[in-house]
Amino acid sequence: MAELRRDPIVGRWVIVDTENIHKPEDFEYEQYISKGGETCPFCYGNESMTPPEIECFRNQDTSSNTPGWQVRVIPNKFPALQIEGDLERRGLGIYDMLNGIGAHEILIESPYHYKDLPELLDSEVENIITMSCRRANDLVRDSRFKYVMIFRNYGPAAGASLEHPHTQIVALPMVPKSVAEEIKGGQNYFEYRERCIFCDIIRQELQEKERVILENKHFVSLCPFVSRFPFEIWIAPKKHNGCYFRISPEEIPSLASILKETISMVKKVFVNLSYNYIIHSSPINGSLGTEYYHWHIEFMPKLMRVAGFEWGTGFYLDPTPPEFAAKILKEASVSR
Amino acid sequence: MAELRRDPIVGRWVIVDTENIHKPEDFEYEQYISKGGETCPFCYGNESMTPPEIECFRNQDTSSNTPGWQVRVIPNKFPALQIEGDLERRGLGIYDMLNGIGAHEILIESPYHYKDLPELLDSEVENIITMSCRRANDLVRDSRFKYVMIFRNYGPAAGASLEHPHTQIVALPMVPKSVAEEIKGGQNYFEYRERCIFCDIIRQELQEKERVILENKHFVSLCPFVSRFPFEIWIAPKKHNGCYFRISPEEIPSLASILKETISMVKKVFVNLSYNYIIHSSPINGSLGTEYYHWHIEFMPKLMRVAGFEWGTGFYLDPTPPEFAAKILKEASVSR
Questions:
Q1: For tag attachment on chain B, is the N or C end more exposed, with fewer CB atoms within 10 Å?
Q2: Crossing angle for the helix pair A197-208 and A177-193, nearest 10 degrees?
Q3: pTM over 0.90
Q4: Per the CB < 8 Å rule, is B308 touching A8?
Q5: Nearest CA distance, B238 vs chain A (angstrom)
Q6: What's the CA gap between B321 and B273, in Å, rounded?
Q7: What 3-state class would DSSP assign to B207?
Q8: What is the extent of the structural domain holding B108?
Q9: Range from A284-293, A322-331, B39-48, B67-76 carrying the lowest mean pLDDT
Q10: Rounded to the nearest 10 degrees, how much is the dihedral formed by the CA atoms of B108, B111, B115, B118?
């Protein structure tokens, strides 16, 4: 019989199919084959094709908007939100609106068009992490913003419109719904137990080991007990910390390594995979939730189309139990 | 500048791009081209390929599981939930579980493999509605169930694994998260104003007319002010009613007609479109929310891939303002 599992943080129920388990070979996913060829605005030498850079790690003897950079941050050329202006709330009968103030930046992760994170050097991934934290810490100083959303779409099935690997950084004047729900759940638990629910989950997972994929000094990566998608993975710091970009410098190599290795394991099982990950972090300028929120990365491989009822109901069906997914990932990493 | 709009029911924020508006020709969606050919278990003559029928509208002189039917309901051959057994709740450390009890039925909408709703006769669509209500009213009598979810995936991009048009009916031992949130929002509003928030929204929309697509005696179809997706449409009864399957018989022709005509309008603009719709209705066996919940259909055309941040954050970007979408749909219906 299948199991219905309830997410302890947000109360979402998921059907986990423990009977007709989908194995890796059962997924007919859209493979990401590079189209290559065309001129890429994110590649070396094409710096003038993008808006001027906001911040950059580059060789000392090079000048802005020329080659010689390692990580480059630019404004999105077609931003949905604009940075100039005052926040204006207004009503329209029963509805509420806000003008579209925000920031939308693109972090070009490396000069290499064809290198995903696992193919980069550890130091290169550390640069990406350091730069995303620098940008977030800069955006936080703008009191209009309530949240900094950092995410990555890799491959067309994951919604990436440009091939060259990049991370997106969006500053918003409100807290997104899913994060607000997680914070609410964390707060309820904290009021009851005076502990962080994420810390308790991580403690239980590290004891049981069944769903843990990787663990290093500062981080753990695991298939969550209430996975919405097959082979969903969370990466979280073992020590409590609400805010991603307050990560301590000594944790960065640890994060770079677990991120690289986790994605590498998934891509060994699913070649040419498209995927997304999103960094969930506590809101800013109000410091809501730093006690009971715990930052983490949610990694979602694009293995299945999402049908109608998931959208309409927030109710998911996961055909691969996370215990099984974790086992597959660990075996693949050993055997190949 | 773009607008940030807040859903008055669940508090979700959506970026509505009012500047770089996506027009119908800007969407490169996956067209649904039938593969045909193979033997379809839902077609006339193949009744023995499915589990035995649960309920059926069929010609008097025909016997069960043979041709001669108009609408046919069968159990899902590969159900994620099973009907037999007692509900057992249990904990696993911090987690909560329930065994996979539920019902999963398939309503085969007509004998015609290639006819979507707009191509059916009004009376045929009425049969589908009547039958789905009958099944829901039957499932409600099982006190283990708390919700009956009725939805339709049309086309492969919408997650339909079989071509022959069908509706799915799933009975669940819990209330799905999205519906629970809508009920909570409706309840908050009701406590404050002693009115149904959905009724107030419908009243405002019918006055403004800007987002209304169609209206008949009992129903309205409109592009919601806070659309998550381009060309998202809601169909709702004008008179307050929390529960879909308590619809009065005289409303059924009105619903059949607006449903057919709405889908027909969308498919005039987007040929070979895949889409989903979900019927949102109040929970059962506890009669939560009948005062402040208002049943409705949420229709979602599959025009775009959903990128990462929507999943991870519950925060959406709609590149086609609903006012513009409504205008396009109305013009297309007149001109062609």
A1: C
A2: 80
A3: yes
A4: no
A5: 17
A6: 20
A7: helix
A8: 3-335
A9: A284-293
A10: -70
With bands split at pLDDT 50, 70 and 90, how would you rate the model's confidence at A307?
Answer: low
Q: Long-range contacts of range B202-208, CB-CB < 8 Å, 24 or more positions apart?
A: B202/B236, B202/B238, B202/B294, B204/A93, B204/A94, B206/B238, B208/A93
A166, A218, A280, A294: which is the annotated catalytic residue?
A166
CB A170 within 8 A of CB A81: yes
The alpha-carbon gap from B53 to the nearest alpha carbon of chain A, in Å, equals 22
Q: Sheet containing B275-280: give its strands across.
A: B55-58, B69-75, B103-108, B166-172, B147-154, B275-280, B296-301, B233-237, B219-222, B212-215
* A317: chain B residues, CB-CB within 8 Å: 80
Query: Is B80 in Cβ contact with A317 (below 8 Å)?
Result: yes
Contact A3 B312 (CB under 8 A): no
What are the residue numbers of the active site of B? 166
Contacts of B225 in chain A (CB under 8 A): 92, 95
A79 is written with which tokens? Answer: 């931003």
Q: Of B8, B174, B314, which has the smallest distance from its Cβ to A177's Cβ? A: B314
Instruction: Say what the pLDDT of residue A155 is.
Output: 93
Contacts of A1 in chain B (CB under 8 A): 82, 85, 99-101
Distance from the B19 Cα atom to the nearest Cα atom in chain A, whole angstroms: 9
Location of structure tokens 């999103």: A278
Residue partners of B16: CB distance under 8 A and separation at least 6: B2, B3, B4, B5, B226, B227, B318, B321, B322
DSSP-derived letter for residue B271 is T
Q: What is the CA radius of gyration of chain B?
A: 20
Question: How many structural domains comprise chain A?
Answer: 1
Task: Flag if A308 and B158 touch (Cβ within 8 Å).
Answer: yes
Question: What ipTM does this complex have?
Answer: 0.89
The label of the residue with tokens 């449903």 reads: B259
- Nearest CB among B81, B93, B278 relative to A313 is that of B278
* B315/A278 CB distance under 8 A: no
| Mean pLDDT of successive 10-residue stretches along chain B, which has 336 residues | 92 90 93 85 95 96 96 91 89 92 96 96 98 97 94 90 94 90 93 94 97 98 96 97 95 98 97 95 77 94 76 81 97 77
CATH number for B242: 3.30.428.10
